[in-house]
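This part of the workshop introduces the protein records we will be handling. The question running through the whole workshop is how a given chain folds. To make this concrete, we reproduce a full record directly below:
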Amino acid sequence: QAGLVESGGGSVQAGGSLRLACKASDQLYSRNYLSWFRQVPGKSREGVAAIVTSRGREYYADFVQGRFTISQDTAKNTVFLTLYSLKPEDTGMYYCAADVYAGNWNGFAYNFWGRGTQVTVSS
């Protein structure tokens, strides 16, 4: 059984929306943070958003600028990332991460990563 499984990626036109999901095992969902990162081809990996699952606290990268929302369904051990007003520069692989062990949520120090889900935005 995989610890983190992403889904919901796909191809959309600029201005469209998409909802990504990360389903976590009981063990990982009980940790402090579940976070979303993305890897744009040719650019550095970057944190997108995070949620403290036990408290519902949300964190966002500056570049999000209100276009994305992180949420959770605790009954399903699932964290969602809803993407609005998508732009071509949002194209990339989106990864779920769990069990941060050092630094801030967007510092890449996670013990567990999903395999990713592809988001493609056309102009």
